[in-house]
Amino acid sequence: MSVGSRIRRVRKFRDMTQKELGIALGYDEKSADVRITQYETGTRTPKIDVLNAMAEVLNVNVLSLKEPTLYSAEDILSILFEIDEETNVKLFDIEDNSDSSISDSNIGVVINYRILQDFLREWKLRKQELNDGIITKNEYTEWKINWPYTADDCGKIEPKIQWKNNK
Description:
Number of domains: 3
CATH class of the largest domain: Mainly Alpha
Structural class: mainly alpha
Order of helices and strands: HHHHHEEHH
Pfam families: HTH_3 (PF01381)
InterPro entries: Cro/C1-type_HTH, Lambda_DNA-bd_dom_sf
GO molecular function, one term: DNA binding
Distance between the termini: 43 Å
CATH topology of the largest domain: 434 Repressor (Amino-terminal Domain)
Strand order of the largest sheet: 1-2
Protein name: Putative transcriptional regulator
Number of strands: 2
C-alpha cells in the first residue's frame, strides 16, 4: 500500500477532512486540502518530517504511514497488519523443535488467501528440498529470484523458466 493510501486510510479512520489535516499540519487554509490531496494521490511525496508531524496529528505510529522496507520486524508486522485489513489473518501458538537456535514456542500465521497458501506450499517444498540436499543453494536462489516464472505448483506443471541444474 502506498504512502498516500496509508495517509488516506488513517485520516478517514480519524474522521478528518483533507482540509482539517492540512491545517493541523500548518498549511495555509486555502491550499491545505490541495496539499493533502497531492500526498494521497502520490503526486507529491511527504518528507519524513512531514510524515512525523502527520503521525502526531493523526495520533499514530509513523510506521503506519510509511511504506515498509522489509528490513525490520516493525516493517514486517506493518505489512502483516495491511494483509489483515484485506483477509482474515489467524495467529496461533506452535511448537517447533526443528532448530535448537530458536525458541520452542513460536507464533504461527495463517493468511486465508488460497493462492498465497499455494505459493507458500511450494516455497516450503523448495526449502525442504534445499535442507535435504535435493537442490543446491544456487538452485534455490535461482528459483526465488525468478519467481513466479519458476513456479511449478509443487511439480505439477512445467515452469516458464527452468531453474534446476539438470545434471
